[in-house]
Structure formats: structure tokens, C-alpha cells
Amino acid sequence: MANYKQDTLCVQAGYSPKTGEARIPPIVQSTTYVYEKTQDMADLFDLKSDGYFYTRLANPTVAAFEGKVAALEGGVCGIGCASGMSATALTIFTVAGAGDNILSSQAVYGGTYNLFSTTLPKLGIECRFFNPDAPKEEIEKLIDDKTKIIFTETIANPAIVVLDFDKIAAIAKKHNVLFAVDNTLSTPVLCRPKDFGANIVVHSSSKYLDGHAAALGGMIIDCGNFEFKGNSRYPAFNTPDESYHGLVYADLPVAFGTKCRAQMIRDYGAIMSPQNAFLSYIGCDTLALRMERHSSNAKKVAEYLSKHPKIEWVKHPSLKDNKYHKLAEKYLPNGQGGMMSFGIKGSVEMCAKFMEALKLITQETHVADVRSCVLHPASTTHRQLSEEDLVKAGVPHNLVRLSVGIENPEDIIADLKQALEKL
């Protein structure tokens, strides 16, 4: 299906039924699978053949969703995970261990920031944060021979920073280091990171991919465009894995994806459930339609808020005076998604008063589904961050995060208007 457009892939990719089979992938709600020949199962355990032997490693329903997202991202392999956070963690663990370090944009999602700044150091992995707007030379100084990956987000949550792909891709290529991008808030419909130099793409599929806030999940996509063989930065890919009878991952056509599933999914057990994969698969059918509506609605809402006297600032790349508008035109020309943030004039209490006055738009610890919702990140998702780290992450105390849904835009704006009138 390589020649089909994204909106066609949303509907058709990932599963091709044979004559007499179900048109949509069945939910294979089984932990195990039956084989008549002992050698057939032995070959599966040795990775000599494809198939299913235990759902902790692979499952047909999960595989259908993996195939769909991999096709959309132009990748060679998809790995469905239990959540977006597990997808991020397993991406790091596939390449980094004690004594290694990673680089990350300091504007990443709060949960990712906590994983990188608090949990990874306990495992001996250092994270070196950089300002995504910093010049290339400044970021390069953080790289040494123990740096295993550069991690970024296409659109940062909730700072709404648009990634300068060319800058980061050039750094990664120069130093022969893996370049990973969390593409959750743009989805492959609006931006394909592989087209701009990314090697690994990560999703919280609980967001736009599922689209209905119904199924927790994550996805890792191996783009198949990074050469591990002979790369001294990655000895674990170039030396035999004794837990797989001396398998050398760099010799395989899908090195990262195989190592991630064979070692990390095997040992951490954080695979996506078949039920959630099924819901996410059918949710993806309408992804292209939804992203078009999310983007157009958000543009109208951003324009309205930018002119309101009780709003101090608005961050959405569709606005012509936005700092990242030019980057958005380059990397996200078909829409910038439904996520935005804005600052309420006044105190933190004013933010709470505004959000509590909303009627259509609800307060939720979620973003990027069909329903509009708001959150105050400084007191919720980024609550664990210090004052200094909040500043670095671009999360001031008067920031309200708004995920614009697919409702009628006039109704969304009317709800914002009546809530602002109460301030």
C-alpha cells in the first residue's frame, strides 16, 4: 500500500482479509496459540519464523494496528505498547543502559520529563535536556560517545513548540546518533517525522489515533533508516545476544524493532491489549477526517482568543504572529492539530474560575480526542516540576491547555466566551 495517500491508509492499511474472513480484524482475546509441531514453536522462539506463541510478545489484533500505524508513518515495523509512556520508556531501554546518556528537548510532556529526569537516573541513564530553540552548536555540545538517542516532540505538550526537524536531524546524522520523535499531537496525517530525518517515531495512541478516549495504548515505529551495523556507539546491536542464542541485531533487516520486541517487550511485558488495539484500529479509520476538523476548529478558536481582552497570549502555530508559524508551514502545511495553550490575565485562581465556568468544554487529564477539554498543567500534569523546570518546560502558572475537539466551532467559542465573561 506504499503508493496510497494517508487518508486511504487510515482506512485500508494494517489488515487484509482473505476470502471468507472478517472484514475488520477480529479481537483475538487469547493469551496463547496452538501448534502441532514442536519445531514450529521452537522456530518462533528463535525468531526464525513469524507468528504468535504468547500474547505478551505479539497478538494478531495488535499486529493489525501496528501495521496500520507503521504504514502511515512509512516505517518497517510497529510495536504496540500498553501506553504512550511505556512506548517512550521502551524506546530508551532498547538502546540505553547504565552509564549511557540521552538528549531530550526540555519542552516535552510532563510525564516524559519526569521519566527522563527522575526515573532514568535511578537506572544509571542520564538525561541532558536542551532548549529546542537553542542553536545547533549549543545542542551538539551535550553529545559524547555515550549518547544513545535524541528525543523530541513534533508539537510539544503543552508548550506548543514546533520542532525544527532539519536542525535536530542534522545533529543526529553528524554524530551518527538515533533521532526519535513523539508524533502524538500531529499524527502522521499532518506530519511524517521520517520524511524529515527521524529514525524512531513514538505515539500515545490513546490520543488522536484512537480519537475517542476509549483505549489506552502506545506505539513505537522503527522507520528502518538507521544503520546500526558497525556503529561503535551501539555495541549491544553489534555483539551477540546470548539470550537469543547469539543473535546479532545489526545483521537483521529490522534491527531496532526486533531488539525492542525480542528483549524489551519480552522482559517488561508492556504490550498493548487486543481489545485496546481493536478500538484504536477502528478509531484510526477516521483519523484523516478528524485531524482536518481538529485543525480548522483550533485555528478559529485561536483567532478568537488572540483578540480577547482577558487573554494575555495564545500559542497555536496557525496564528501568523506565532513564533513557530514558519516551521509549521514547513512541516505541518495541512493543519497544526487541535492542541493550544493560552494565558489568562490575572492569578492562578482566575484560571480555575474560568475552567470551572465552562459548560461544554470539560476539565480532563487528557487531550486529543473528539471532545474539547481543558487542563491547568502547572497544578496537574507538571505538578512535580520545580519552578525552574516549569520555566524551562514553557509552563507558566497562568497557562491553560485547551484541546479543541470536533464539535461545532461556534459552540466551542460560545462556551469560551461565556466563561471569560465571568472573570
Kindly summarize this structure in a few lines.
The chain is of the alpha/beta class. The chain has helices at residues 6-12, 38-45, 60-73, 84-95, 110-122, 136-140, 165-175, 187-190, 235-238, 255-268, 274-284, 287-306, 325-331, 348-357, 387-392, 409-420; strands at residues 77-81, 101-105, 126-130, 147-153, 178-182, 200-204, 218-222, 311-315, 339-344, 362-363, 373-375, 399-403.
Itemize the secondary structure elements and their pairings:
Elements: H1 6-12, H2 38-45, H3 60-73, E1 77-81, H4 84-95, E2 101-105, H5 110-122, E3 126-130, H6 136-140, E4 147-153, H7 165-175, E5 178-182, H8 187-190, E6 200-204, E7 218-222, H9 235-238, H10 255-268, H11 274-284, H12 287-306, E8 311-315, H13 325-331, E9 339-344, H14 348-357, E10 362-363, E11 373-375, H15 387-392, E12 399-403, H16 409-420
Parallel strand pairs: 2-3, 2-4, 4-5, 5-6, 10-11
Antiparallel strand pairs: 1-7, 6-7, 8-9, 9-12, 11-12
Helix pairs in contact: 1-3, 3-11, 4-10
Q: What is the arithmetic mean of pLDDT?
A: 95
Helix content estimate: 25-40%
Structural category = alpha/beta
Inertia-based shape: globular
The main β sheet shows up as: 7 strands, mixed
Low-pLDDT windows of residues = none
**Helix count, per DSSP?**
16
Radius of gyration: 22 Å
SSE string, helices as H and strands as E:
HHHEHEHEHEHEHEEHHHHEHEHEEHEH
End-to-end separation:
53 Å
Strand content: 5-15%
Number of β-strand runs:
12
User: Taking strands numbered 1, 2, ... along the chain, how are they ordered across the largest sheet?
Assistant: 1-7-6-5-4-2-3
